[in-house]
């Protein structure tokens, strides 16, 4: 058995605002230790449940947050930036299941530190269906025939996952009070929950079907201002929908749509606000 794990940061227990997830802020170093230990609960359980290989992809910001020296010794870690497939780098059809931990709900929704890739995105759509990081990453997994068997984070991302992926196992380590406040489990209790849920997810992985992406998906991204849309539309094949801040791109498959999204949001981040 081979398991893929993508680890984001906003959905980790006890982390509630930008001071926890920004490497320049005072809470970051302790937060990355909590993130690493939480990821390790999932990793260790996967090995205990019979996994012969576990690949972990650091999926937050510059993607160099996880402390490799604290991980299970048999773990293989994908770390650093730039990655052609970002949060799902290294995922392919050889895996028996994917686990997303430390995840958050999509932009515009209730939840702790909700967003979709960058804070300049108001909404993302695949064929006019709203989608966030969770959904896009699950579609890439589905393209390769890999089911997302577990999602861990706050209660809001759990609901998003359950609506998107039938029979997925969810692990709620905190409940959102606002976008920057939550009622969290302690790391010890979160670790116990993650071990239980990981074991359950692996045991029941046959009940989860891959999330099959649509053929020739239409990617649309709604930005918060017109300048961001102008930058994103510089990507060949992209165009602004008139009188909106929405940029669309007709992709040949979900892999091209995913990479188009990465390019568009990177371009949009060049926008200044004055």
TrEMBL record:
Give the UniProt keywords, A-Z: Metal-binding, Zinc
Superkingdom of the source species: Bacteria
- Has keyword Zinc? yes
InterPro entries (UniProt xref): DppA_N (IPR027476), Peptidase_M55 (IPR007035), Peptidase_M55_sf (IPR036177)
Q: Which CDD domains match?
A: DAP_dppA_1 (cd08663)
Q: Which residues take part in binding Zn(2+) 2?
A: 8, 60, 104, 133
* Annotated positions binding Zn(2+) 1: 8, 10
List the active site: 115
Task: Specify the protein name.
Answer: M55 family metallopeptidase
Pfam families per the record? Answer: Peptidase_M55
Q: Which GO terms describe its molecular function?
A: metal ion binding
């Amino acid at each position: 058995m081979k398991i893929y794990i993508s680890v984001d940061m906003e959905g980790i227990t006890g982390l509630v605002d930008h001071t926890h997830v920004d490497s320049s802020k005072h809470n970051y170093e302790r937060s990355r230790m909590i993130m690493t230990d939480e990821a390790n609960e999932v990793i260790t359980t996967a090995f205990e449940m019979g996994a012969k290989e576990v690949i972990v992809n650091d999926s937050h910001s510059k993607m160099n947050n996880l402390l490799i020296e604290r991980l299970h010794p048999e773990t293989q870690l994908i770390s650093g930036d730039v990655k052609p497939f970002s949060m799902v780098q290294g995922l392919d059809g050889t895996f028996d299941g994917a686990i997303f931990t430390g995840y958050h709900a999509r932009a515009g929704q209730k939840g702790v530190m909700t967003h979709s890739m960058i804070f300049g995105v108001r909404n993302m759509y695949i064929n006019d269906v709203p989608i966030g990081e969770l959904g896009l990453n699950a579609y890439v997994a589905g393209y390769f025939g890999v089911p997302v068997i577990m999602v861990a984070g706050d209660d809001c991302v759990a609901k998003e996952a359950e609506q998107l992926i039938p029979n997925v196992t969810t692990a709620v380590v905190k409940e959102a009070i606002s976008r920057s406040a939550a009622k969290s489990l302690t790391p010890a209790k979160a670790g116990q929950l993650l071990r239980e849920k990981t074991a359950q997810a692996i045991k029941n992985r046959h009940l989860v079907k891959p999330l099959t992406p649509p053929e020739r998906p239409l990617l649309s991204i709604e930005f918060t201002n017109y300048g961001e849309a102008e930058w994103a539309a510089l990507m060949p094949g992209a165009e602004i929908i008139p009188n909106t801040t929405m940029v669309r791109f007709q992709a040949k498959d979900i892999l091209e749509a995913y990479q188009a999204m990465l390019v568009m949001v990177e371009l949009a981040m060049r926008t200044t606000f004055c």
